[in-house]
């Protein structure tokens, strides 16, 4: 009798000119590998989105025994395109009882929260978001203007895009059940997301809500001082892209078979219209 397959946990991490962040990120991946290996087969997928610095070389030199695979785009296409590449890459081997984690590549995702997110998933949730906006979370070392704009954007999107009850819209740091990713790939294609920019995670969230996915959030302290260099996100471009998401709602709802119902969200019933 063959050995039973261990559940895998895939980490999809887009990077673009993150050479200064690679050493600390690799330390986090080694810790995750050691922590999770008892129960899972951890696999780390770095999608290098056209970096012009030493990002890829540093990953190659420092990965050691950690199962890190690097896929490179020939030019910078945007984080959404990098996530799309990652989702498509894991599709052939992903099983329903596996897990997928998406993370920032600049160390602002608190990797130590992965275990807490997995514990939360035992309550039956298919998707867990790390949120600096829920009780117990906060934003540190970020300008008041950027924090204010982020808060306003989240509040605006909840109303405009019908994402009521969800506190964090665009954070990359999330945990997904393998069965959810497979279902979304069957409906929306292997790449799941089509938006190449930072609005890709809002797109993913919209599609998940239209499928009546069960969601929850865990608090996270977002500390931008953990990042070397500046954020790659262009505020005005991202705001414009978020506004244009309203024109895609009909298409994505139709793809989800026009299902209307309630989405379970941490004990709150949210309407998916």
Secondary structure layout:
Elements: E1 8-15, H1 22-36, E2 41-49, H2 55-62, E3 68-73, H3 79-90, E4 99-102, H4 114-121, E5 127-131, E6 138-140, H5 144-160, E7 174-177, H6 178-188, H7 200-210, E8 215-219, E9 221-223, H8 235-244, H9 249-255, E10 261-265, E11 268-272
Parallel strand pairs: 1-2, 1-4, 2-3, 5-8, 6-9
Antiparallel strand pairs: 4-7, 5-7, 10-11
How would you describe this protein?
With 273 residues, the protein is α/β, with parallel strands linked by helices. It has a single domain, classed as Spore Coat Polysaccharide Biosynthesis Protein SpsA, Chain A. Helix content is 36%, strand content 21%. The protein contains nine helices and eleven strands. The strands form three sheets. It has a seven-stranded mixed sheet, sandwiched between helices. The longest helix is centred in the middle third of the chain and has 17 residues, at 144-160. The N and C termini lie far apart (49 Å). Mean pLDDT is 85; it is low at 259-273.
How would you briefly describe this protein structure?
The chain has 9 helices and 11 strands.
